[in-house]
Amino acid sequence: MSNKINEVTGVIISRALLEEYGYDGDMPSDEEMQTIADELGILFIPGMEIETSEEIHMVAYFETVDAALAFGDELEKQ
Q1: What is the pLDDT of residue 11?
Q2: Are 13 and 47 in contact (CB under 8 A)?
Q3: What SS3 state is found at 4?
Q4: Any residues with CB less than 8 A from the CB of 33 and at least 6 apart, and which?
Q5: pTM value?
Q6: Are 8 and 2 in contact (CB under 8 A)?
Q7: Which residues are CB-neighbours of 39 under 8 A, at least 6 positions away?
Q8: What is the distance between the alpha carbons of residues 36 and 28, in angstroms, rounded to a whole number?
Q9: How many angstroms separate the CA atoms of 51 and 5, rounded?
């Protein structure tokens, strides 16, 4: 991982967002993102972007990565 990560002071970008915008490098796992956030002393909040059928975009935040994944699974069933 680049030394640039040491310059982060506020936000860690999600893998999904990076993938959406064409980043094709090695993606950290959620556990790795949590470790990075802990090392930097910043808060890691699992979340996802949701788009409605009316093309409204929302961001949902979750207490755990597992909760976010379970919610995503439920959305896929719709």
Answers
A1: 57
A2: no
A3: helix
A4: 12, 14, 15, 44
A5: 0.55
A6: no
A7: none
A8: 9
A9: 29
- Measured CA to CA, the distance from residue 43 to residue 41 in angstroms comes to 7
Going from the C-alpha of 2 to that of each of 26, 42, 76, the distances in angstroms are 11, 18, 34
pLDDT at 12 over 80: no
SS3 (DSSP) at 59: strand
Say how far apart CA 32 and CA 54 lie, in whole Å.
34
The type of residue at 22 is: G
Show the tokens assigned to 22: 């064409």
Q: What token pair was written down for 9?
A: 């002071």
Q: What is the pLDDT of residues 29-73, one digit of tens each?
A: 777 778 877 887 878 888 888 888 899 988 888 888 788 888 888
